[in-house]
Design goal:
Elements lengths: L6 H22 L3 H4 L5 H8 L3 H18 L2 H9 L1 H18 L4 H30 L4 H29 L4 H6 L2 H14 L7 H4 L10 H30 L4 H26 L6 H20 L5 H25 L4 H33 L3 H21 L15
Helix pairs in contact: 1-8, 1-10, 4-7, 4-16, 5-6, 5-7, 6-7, 6-10, 7-15, 7-16, 8-13, 8-15, 12-13, 12-14, 12-15, 12-16, 12-17, 13-15, 14-15, 14-17, 16-17
């Protein structure tokens, strides 16, 4: 005998689907305000007199904000609730996107800073929502979340110049455009997220002792090292490829192909990570793919460059998504997820902000990319070691908590 779901159960299921859709809309908005800047840098520099150093600072600033602001997210969540804090951050994101087109250079930098701060707060808190609301479907919803992040970045980078051309060459319109999907994501969150207060009392609890957990540091270092490689690829892969004799257009297309390949493992990585007893193997495999793809882009025969870029993208998309779900799986409850997410983001993005600088410095010292390749190798091995440690099936042990596994 089959028991039909009650009207209440049907309403709950429908609302859960709408809530998941709202999370995807929010996640899509966590990259376009930043990834849409790079293709417009030449136009921005020529219009407002931005120096090359200033352009580098403009692209590094939000990455630093991700790390510096990360510890603030759990504090705000305890004060206002996780749901309201995310809503405030989304509103601030939409406003800061518009701010960048006013007040010249000061407005551009102030708006970029606020963009990074707003996105940083949302990225810290959303994983705790995923664990609290979708614990039974955690691999699927985490995959959707990480795929939406990658998708938003890819779309923004791809349409930045076409948007500028549609606006008659005005880069300000191309930047301001992203306030519209940000407002759409804000509205979707307001309609669904604010109705979820089941974990509000948990969000107000204080988590202490996280920095004394070896497992927490392994998760943070894994996320940090993979972020270093990700931002080095975004920054330097086109230059590496042009130094190998490819045109700038082809180098850009190869980078776009690599980013597109990330969508596959961004979605499937969390599912794969929950198929085995733990995540040690999948973390090592994804980082191995990243290292092989990156070295192949630098040294393999040029005929293999497209396949190399695809391997690199599969590795990087999987490394990020597996790291994201390890934040959830290693945490015993949602409040620890928020705090661990803040810790990993603080460590990860501070490392990521320095990675491209060191890669470029080594390039200048050696007058080539060999020393930079050694740097990439060392970071990859460090990430693999941290991932194997973080992938063990256990919960983080804090005061009064027994470590499971």
């Amino acid at each position: 005998m089959t028991i039909s779901p009650s009207p209440q159960q049907k309403r709950e299921k429908t609302f859960s689907l709408l809530f998941a859709f709202a999370i995807v809309l929010v996640a899509i908005n966590l990259r376009p305000a930043l990834s849409g800047v790079g293709p417009l840098l030449s136009a921005i520099r020529s219009t407002i007199g931005l120096s090359a150093a200033g352009a580098g600072g403009l692209t590094t600033l939000p990455v630093l904000c991700f790390g510096i602001i990360a510890p603030l997210g759990p504090l705000l969540a305890r004060r206002f609730s996780t749901e309201r804090t995310i809503l405030f951050a989304l509103l601030a994101l939409a406003a800061s996107i518009v701010l960048r087109i006013f007040l010249g250079l000061p407005g551009l930098f102030a708006g970029t800073f606020l963009c990074g701060a707003s996105i940083g707060v949302v990225m810290v808190l959303l994983p705790s929502i995923l664990k609290r609301e979708f614990s039974k479907e955690i691999s699927f919803i985490t995959g959707l979340y990480t795929m939406a992040l990658s998708l938003g970045a890819a779309i923004a980078a791809g349409v930045a110049v076409p948007l500028q051309r549609l606006a008659g060459g005005d880069w300000r319109v191309a930047l301001a455009f992203w306030s519209l999907p940000a407002l759409l994501g804000t509205a979707a969150w307001a309609a669904t997220g604010l109705r979820r207060h089941a974990g509000e009392s948990q969000a107000r609890q204080r988590v202490s002792g996280l920095s004394r957990s070896g497992t927490a540091w392994q998760v943070a270092l894994y996320m940090g090292f993979q972020s270093v490689l990700a931002y080095c690829v975004f920054t330097w892969l086109p230059s590496i490829l042009t130094d190998r004799g490819l045109s700038a257009v082809t180098a850009g297309a190869i980078l776009s192909t690599s980013i597109g390949a990330q969508l596959v493992t961004a979605l499937s990585g969390p599912w794969l990570a929950t198929r085995g007893r733990d995540q040690r193997l999948i973390a090592a495999v994804m980082m191995g793919l990243t290292l092989v793809g990156l070295m192949a882009c630098m040294y393999a025969p040029i005929q293999m460059i497209w396949w190399s870029a695809i391997i690199l993208g599969l590795g990087q998309g999987g490394s990020f998504s597996v790291g994201t779900i390890m934040v959830v799986l290693r945490s015993p409850n949602p409040q620890v997820v928020a705090s661990l997410s803040g810790m990993t983001q603080f460590v990860g993005y501070l490392l990521a902000a320095t990675g491209p600088f060191f890669a470029g410095l080594l390039r200048d010292i050696s007058k080539g990319w060999d020393l930079t390749a050694v740097f990439f190798f060392v970071v990859s091995v460090g990430a693999m070691a941290a991932g194997i440690g973080a992938g063990r099936a256990r919960h983080i042990k804090l005061s009064g908590m027994a470590e499971a596994g």
